[in-house]
Amino acid sequence: MTLAALGASALLVGCGPTMGPASDEADSFDISELRWGSNSDSNKWIYNGMLPALVEPSIVVSIAGHTARVSGYLPTGFTGRLPFYATAADDRGRTRVTVVYPIATGATTNAPGMYPDIRGLPYLPYAPNSRGEYIPWGGFPFLEYNHRRGIAFHGPITHGTTATGVEWLLKRGPVSHGCNRMQGEHVVELAHLLGLQMNTTHAAFTSRSIRVDVNVIEGYDSVGGQLVDVNYPRTAGAVAPQGNVRMFRTWWSSDFPRWVCAHKTGRALDANHCAYEPSNRLDALTGEEPANAPTVMIDNATMGVLATSGGPWEISSARPGYVGVNYVALAAGRAGEAVFTVPARVNGRYRVLARYIAHSNRNTAVRYEVSRRAGDSSPAVVLFDQRTGDGWADLGVRELGAGATVKIPVAAGSNGYTIVDALRFDRAQ
Questions:
Q1: Cα 104-110-115 angle, rounded to 5 deg
Q2: Can you give the pLDDT at residue 274?
Q3: pTM of the entire predicted model
Q4: Distance separating alpha carbons of residues 176 and 352, to the nearest angstrom
Q5: Measured between alpha carbons, how far is 155 from 256 in angstroms, rounded to an integer?
Q6: What is the DSSP letter of 53?
Q7: CA torsion angle for 101, 270, 123, 72 (degrees, to 10)?
Q8: Exposed, middle or buried, 298 (CB in 10 Å: 0-12/13-18/19+)?
Q9: Which of 406, 354, 409, 356 has its CA nearest to residue 380?
Q10: Could you tell me the CA-to-CA distances from 21 to 16, 35, 61, 250, 370 in Å, in that order?
Q11: Which of 42, 322, 331, 373 has the greatest number of CB atoms lying within 10 Å of its CB?
């Protein structure tokens, strides 16, 4: 489940608040498809994650890299453990924490420079702006740092129907008109890191000024001599840094639904407020499935598990039904190959299933080769018609060991798109 998010109407400058924010965004959407709430209301979002408000926070926004690097000190007396995507370092006896978020930047304007404070609005309902336009901001925070032009961090805009229902997902790239779009769960967590107390509710349109340096740079961000990137896919037009790169990890609510949730009236506003959501799927400290998990899933966007060649392969979210944030596709007639590396924790007998998005323009003879271990000279071969079925290709029960792979080779002359999305491993008896 990825959190519902924001909509838009077009203005010439900024996306800053009037009565509520008057958006600069011009993306189309259907407000009836908001996952949470209705057209007349918006949910308040509660943060039940692991991170506290940081002391002396700062943010570096990279326009080229589409990253927002947030750092600050742990408060005195904090004794909790940090989630897998937060890095900690000693800084003269204090613990400095760093989190990197994927963002969208402006397709037309970005306004690089240093900004010394943020005007934070923790709750924005579906309400009219000064022009009488109703903007479904989804209840997510709006964190404005360029007050002259109304440029801010806010939630995503792009939406679609996925395997788990209607979801709103960030398109990471130069797609906004100046603001920095974020995943809905990420902007809630960011607001909490900056001290907006997102573990409680707030009245509509209340705002607070936060002292925080926001440094917007045109090039790639760097830390410790390494260029900064984050494990989240990007759109066409967004170029990854090359060379000595430090890849930061990230998270989303489909894996950790209890870290950010919609406020439920009648439930105590405490650390267990989000316990009505399904249990978190992954281990909070490692970001992996718990040891001996009966089901393991890897997605095309999972760092380090999928390699593609030939093609070119396209990153897409055009058709609903995918796992995670997108899928990859190879057009009809093109030759290429996609290879999944099976995680080492998948060891033993598992039923292997491959996710695809069925459609009439798909390849009717997609070849899956399951190599059960390194050096397997006779991989199991399954042919599957991606125009039919429920979206999972059953590749059979296999005994898997170290070095196992799932390869999808595509010869020139295929009769439709070949879709590669995710793999699922169900432990078998």
A1: 105
A2: 94
A3: 0.74
A4: 39
A5: 18
A6: P
A7: -40
A8: buried
A9: 406
A10: 5, 21, 21, 27, 51
A11: 322
Q: Measuring CA to CA, which residue among 72, 78, 71, 79 is closest to residue 55?
A: 72
pLDDT the model gives residue 129 = 57
**Amino acid 28: pLDDT:** 27
Give me the residues of the chain with pLDDT under 70, please: 1-42, 126-137, 157-168
For the chain, give the number of residues.
429
Here the tokens at position 143 are 């964190």
- Asked if residues 394 and 351 have their Cβ atoms less than 8 Å apart, the reply is yes
Residue 88 is encoded by which pair of tokens?
Answer: 């900690």
Contact by Cβ (8 Å): 138, 184: yes
Full set of structural domains in the chain with CATH:
31-276 (2.40.440.10), 295-427 (2.60.120.260)
DSSP codes, 180-204? EE--HHHHHHHHHHTT--TTS---T
**Greatest pairwise CA separation for the chain in angstroms:** 68
Element (H, E) at 228: strand 226-230
**Cα separation values, 270 from 51, 77, 109, 259, 267, Å:** 14, 19, 41, 12, 9
Which tokens hold the place of 276? 């009505």
CA distance 31 to 16: 20
Q: Which segments within 304-421 are labelled E, that is strand?
A: 306-310, 314-316, 327-330, 336-341, 348-355, 366-371, 380-384, 392-400, 405-410, 418-420
The C-alpha angle 261, 32, 103, rounded to 5 degrees, equals: 55
Residue 195: left if φ>0, alpha if ψ -120 to 50, beta else—which one?
left
What pLDDT does residue 168 have? Answer: 60
Range list of β-strands (E), 243-285: 245-248, 260-262
Token pair in block for residue 122: 């923790």
Task: Return phi, psi of residue 72, to 5°.
Answer: 180, 175
Dump the DSSP string for 71-109: EEEPPTT--PPPPTT-EEEEETTEEEEEEEEE--EESS-
Instruction: Report yes or no: 187 and 141 within 8 Å, Cβ to Cβ.
Output: yes
> Encoding tokens for residue 321?
């039904």
